[in-house]
Amino acid sequence: MYLLLRYSASVESRAQFTKQGKLPGNERDGWHGTRRECQLGNEGKTRFCTSITCSLCGIIKTSFDLARGFNGTGFGLGWEILGKALYTSSSSSKSDNYSYNTNWNTPLKAMLLNKVIAGKCYVAEKAEETLTGPPVGYDSARLPQAATVDDLAVYRNDAIRPSYLIMYDGN
To answer: What's this model's pTM, rounded to 2 decimal places?
Structure first.
């Protein structure tokens, strides 16, 4: 959490979001659905698994990692509408589309509610799959409000931290 707070303070010092009535660094909550290869979250199952490809345990143990998310063994699903980024949504139902179990026959699904430092957000007019970061002067990216996709893309590991694990019936 220290890295998130340090990054938030850095972003806040540049843009002074609190003077605009916003949280420091333009902090937001964002939902993230991900792959679960284990039984973490099932009744009585509270230990992390040891699989290097279980995105859920990896994110909770070490937080988000851009490098891990896009090397075929980590958190990404290859859906990169705003480039190589860490994605959250303000809509849990949108993030539900990315929450799935790989090895267990259970109706329970896992989703993370995260603290995200949006900072100054670049609004892309269309998909920009080749982005590796926001344009100069921006801290994050999203599509226009009218788009059917409300994802927020951040390009730094220290811009996001998981806060809550939510388990729910996916049926």
So the answer is: 0.89
